[in-house]
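Predict fold of Methyltransferase; 198 aa.
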Amino acid sequence: MSSTVEPEPTSDMPDEYFTSMYADDLDPWGFDTSWYEQRKYEISLALLPRQRYRSAIEPGCSNGALTRRLADRCDRLIAFDLHAGAVEEARRRLAGQPHVEVRHERFPDYWPDGTGDLVVWSEVAYYLGDDNGRRAIDRLDDWLELDGHLLSVHYTGPTNYPRAGADIAPWLDELDWLEPTSRCVDAAFEAVVWTRCR
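Predicted 3D structure, encoded as tokens:
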């Protein structure tokens, strides 16, 4: 009698990774300075089909570099991150914008009440292991309204993360309640917008 050995489920990226990344710099990935990041933000936002969204969330907002740009397109925006220092920097950056709330929370444990029409996963989904990946999908299913949009953008080069960036879009493509609306496949990242179709 043969037995099948199930693969070990992948775990989330450990908190220590983020602690070390932010130890000396609140912009360790160059969100404010690198051309890669600036170009990626512009392309990602240009893919969004609507000029304005009623209610949006951005998990893993880091220091708020993308959040500041998203704020111009949203009536209400909740952004959050697990690193306290990054959250404080994002709050400083978004001060004076009362329609934006920046919270110190963990993705996908935290998800705001109610529903909304935009979810932005920018460089965040590939930090999730199998269990929290499933939880994130369940939370997305509960929160995203019909005809709402999910924007997912991830670096596709080599990393030591639980998931490869190039695997995020195929993973989301498997969901029969999301329909791809627009896609940009770049040499270094993939940005896709899906529409909630049922």
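Strands lie at 56-59, 77-81, 100-104, 116-122, 144-155, 178-185, 189-196.
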